[in-house]
Amino acid sequence: MTELLPLAILMTSLGIAPVILALPDGWSRLRTALNLTAAGMKLALVAWLSWAVAGGAEFGLSLEIAPGLALALKADALSVLFLALSSVLWLLTTIYAVGYLEGGTDRSRFFGFFSLCVASTVGIAMAANLFTFVVFFELLTLATWPLVVHRGSAEAHRAGRIYLVYTLGGGLALTLGAVWLYALAGEVPFLPRGVLGDLPQTDPLAVTAIFVLLIAGVGVKAALVPLHGWLPVSMVAPAPVSALLHAVAVVKSGAFGIMRIVYDVYGVETVEALGLALPLAALAGVTILYGSIRALRQDDLKTRLAYSTVSQVSYITLGVALVSPVAAVGGLAHLIHQGIMKITLFLAAGNFAEARGVKTVSAMDGMGRLMPGATLAFTVGAFGMIGVPPLAGFVSKWYLGAGGLDAGQPAVIALLAGSSLLNAAYFLPILHRAWFRDPPEGAVPKRRIGWMLALPPAVTAALVVAAGLLANAPFSPLGWTRFIVSLEYL
Amino acid sequence: MTSDLVYHVAGAGLLAIALWRLATCRDTLRRITALNVLAIGIAMVLLASGHDPATGVTNPVPQAFVLTGIVVLVAVTAALLALAERLEGSSDE
Amino acid sequence: MNETSLLVSLPLIAALVAAAWPRAATITGVIATLGNAGLAVVLAIRIGQGGAEAEALGGWAAPLGIGFAADGLAALMLVMTALVGLGVSVQVAGAPLPDAGRTGQRTAFWPLWLATLGAMNALFLSADLFNLYVTFEILGLAAVGLTALSGTRTALRAAFDYLSAGLAGSLLLLLGVALAYATAGRVDLAVVPELAGSHEGRVALGLIFAGLAVKAALFPLHFWMPAAHSSAAPEASALLSALVVKAAIYVALRLSIEGGAAVELLRLVLAVAGAGAMLWGAWHALRADRLKLLVAHSTVAQVGLIALAIGLTTGARDGTIWRAAALLMLSHALAKAAMFLAVGRITEELGHDRISGLNREELRPGAAEFAFAIAAISLIGLPPTAGFVGKWLLLDGLIDRGAWPWVALVLLGTVLSAAYLARVVSRCLRGGPHVAPGARRPAWRAGDAAALGLATAALALGLASALPLTLLDATLT
Question: Which residue range or ranges hold the NADH:quinone oxidoreductase/Mrp antiporter transmembrane domain (chain A) (predicted)?
Fold first, then answer.
């Protein structure tokens, strides 16, 4: 029975998607009930799974598609890390989206694809081999597209087109790399410390080319410069979709893909031996600085947050690419930390836009007095991003910096310092306007913020605080990350 | 020997004329005629290839092919003519 | 009488019954299509377990009699035809009772479809070249009837061009077959490698491939196809595009496998023609302004991809590439039939098939559009569809051969297909300023179910690709 646990977790969202798609738009009660039940069930199942995996249990099941080609799921420690993130945030984002889209059009389509999106993410988290990973990775692209163009405006369609061009292009590179690797190596399961055997010695050129293709493929979703162009454009999507893109599913899948490829396909030592670790770390460093610098100049709040994501996600890549267990802990923990911090910021920003029509930084004046709860959540998220102790972001940055020293790359410290300064430079003015300036005369609320919109950012902000304060607890993101890294660097 | 050559050359000539007409002409009736000429050309080449000049014996199998081909040709020509007639008759759209 | 001969005789007899008895046409057609599907599945299971079979009709052996052979590839094609036929039959049988003008059309559909089915089954089971020629002729005549079914002037013109192109192709085929006989003294399929050894034999094979290229609408002999497939009635287009074109492709694949290394040059020509078709079709699909025209051009492109795959087989029976080609044929059949049925439903509801107007309609035929989208995913070759597994295997085989330029071409074709299909799918995601919030949804029709069913089959086949691939292992040696 428990062998089927990964399948059950997948089906809570995959099985419900077609049902929701087929529901008439007006049946919002049933749809919400289905959505929340599924999200709750998944959370419970993931909790069960985490407990079992921590106890040393192994899960795996597979379906052969063609000779040497199997769809296979498994749940290891790394999967659980990503699963926990996506299932907690799925529940919160669903609650938020129900409130956000109340009275809107095409809600069945929206929630159907929303579930499909999370199903793909869960599939990515539990993929046991490269083929399965590619399947779910592409499925994620397809499921997200209708969400990006949800508003149906010309601008939304333009964003959707750009999104498709980038992600399908990346998917093509990823598929080509994966097929090539299968042609060379036979099957490519995900196993700690890599599965390539002596292939890197016999055919280093092909193995390097494949690495570049694979990283380029997942790098599009991870928004590595210069493949990040779709992310700021996708800001036209509704706020819950932004949360999905930036925190729960898309960007995270890209970063997770980099982890899988570096750790479980190639193995860290092989990547270093091929001379690929340093270029990857350098690319991550460039992305961190570039995203922060671009964020400085954006007046549109969501675009500023989007460039901030470009920058922050590369912390994860940096942690993976610096060949050091300490840095790896920082990078992996940041997968979770960035997720909860960024979702807090986006949900709060969505509330500003919904309640007051505030979409730009320059319109943030006095928001702390008008909407204290949302502004407080936003502030926690922003301080976390800057790396103020004892919030979650500080923990990641601490480990990354220590890892840089450990790996003999003191430049990382300078990079982190510079990036943190830039983070402060683009977040603090927002906070200053919100808390210390007077609200404009005669500002009236556009609509009331119900509990469905108010609760999720409050919860995630609390998580940001907890992840920092309780970093040493056994089931904290950091604690779990140490467990994973102990498997990768033995 | 020479009579075989005549068949081959004449058949090839008919083939060439028919293919040229098919490629250049859009009139329905001319196309139907061209297709028939093409078929006859092929039949001539086939019949000639069934004849072994060394022994003087004629192989019946190519003849059977030609017969089948003629039956098919008649059927397709009938269908083409019917379509052509309906095309002439209809003037909608 | 076993399944093999029943598969040929049942549809043909049913066609006669349906033609003679127009009142009972629908019921005859549905029963025969169902029966055929059952027979095809039984045969496929038996071949999957017991291997290939051969049969001489009426007890006459090869030189005089007609031989039938059923192997894994043939069984796969039979099942493909049966499945697509079932979907289309559901659509036709379940359509609401039409006005007087359409009634005749509907009763005429069944004999034509059943004759097409019988001819296709016979073609897949044929074990010699001459038999293939005869079945091609029956198929061509029945398919022309399907093309002309809607009775409009454009459809009649397209049918005329189709039939004359088809006849020219058949005549080339006949000439090739006769030359093959003159050279080798026999016409069974195993003769192909022998033919490739002599000069006359190579001419014969060249003529046969040229005839096939006309029938499969390979570049530059594709001129007749887009018009024929876009002006026919939707259910006829579905059959023509999904199945009838596959007949010629199937024979090309069969000859490529039988020919082995001996027909290397012909295969190269086939691959080049396929690449040409892929690019030409994609280019025109990108510029098409009508939905049906776009889908018809996409058939040119997709068939080009399959021809490219066939052209690049190594000739070895254990190779990956020809399996990929067979899988692509199967997935294209399901997806393209779904797509044409969906287009038929969309056109029926909206009253037009202009692509640019799709996102400006208040009416939303959601089910049909969803079916179109799934079919598009399969045609592009995105997971988890059968098209994806097919393309994966194809790329795997090409990389194994080190055929990098061809890999690049396949990827280019994929990008183009995504581009032209996204033109349609993106407009199905309407909303926003163009559309009022209270958009209407039309009632469900059998056509929606048929389109969704076929599209879902293309999707599910991706997860069950092991079944067709195992069946292909039982292909004649």
Answer: 127-419
